[in-house]
Amino acid sequence: MKIETSITIEPALPDFAAAARLGIAQAATDIHRRAVESIQSGKKSGRVYDHYFVTIKGRAVPIRARSSSHQASAPGEAPASDSGALVASISMDIEAGGLAAEIGTGRDYGLYLEEDMDRPWLKPAADQNTVVDAFVRAFQRRAG
Predict the structure, then answer these.
(1) pLDDT of residue 3
(2) 41, 110, 47, 111: which is closest to 73 by C-alpha?
(3) Residue 129 near residue 23, CB atoms below 8 Å
(4) Helices (H), strands (E): how many in the chain?
(5) DSSP alpha helix (H) spans, 9-122
(6) Residues in the chain, pLDDT under 50
(7) What pLDDT score does 21 carry?
């Protein structure tokens, strides 16, 4: 699951290229930070687990006790970090000479949590980003 953001710079406006690169880098960094923070912090109000589980024939079966309990997230909340694997997998790549960025995870369950389990973590981080909006407004004022 990945979110991409990019800006196209017209050749007639080369002085905007440096500002665009900075804006994209700031936006990508902000989205990455918000995504990580949403998983690692914030109130979680889901079920509390005292055991590890495996799924057998579609049914969760406890296999062993946990050393400490885990508070899961409820629908609508960002996922609660347990092992830290999702957070560790969140990457940010600056591409196209700094004019595009990709933030996301290669882990399949990142998309599963976001879309199928209603545990949003990446889209809200992108939606809360104001860096790109501010840059676009400044770009439009300068160009128009």
Answers:
(1) 60
(2) 47
(3) no
(4) 5, 5
(5) 15-40, 85-89, 108-111
(6) none
(7) 82
What is the rounded distance in angstroms from the CA atom of residue 9 to the CA atom of residue 143? 11
Between CA 39 and CA 102, with CA 119 as vertex, the angle to 5 degrees is 65
Whether the CB-CB separation of 73 and 79 falls below 8 Å is answered with yes
- At position 142, the amino acid (one-letter code) is R
Length of the chain: 144
d(CA 39, CA 77): 9
Which residue type occupies 87? V
Residue-by-residue DSSP string for 94-144: EEGGGTEEEEE-S-HHHHIIIIIS----SHHHHHT--HHHHHHHHHHHHH-
pLDDT digits 0-9 by tens, 74-115:
999 999 999 999 999 999 999 888 888 999 999 999 999 999
Tokens 């949590």 sit on residue: 113
Q: Which two tokens stand for residue 93?
A: 């790549």
Nearest to 32 by CA among 99, 144, 128: 128
User: Which of helix, strand or coil describes residue 70?
Assistant: strand
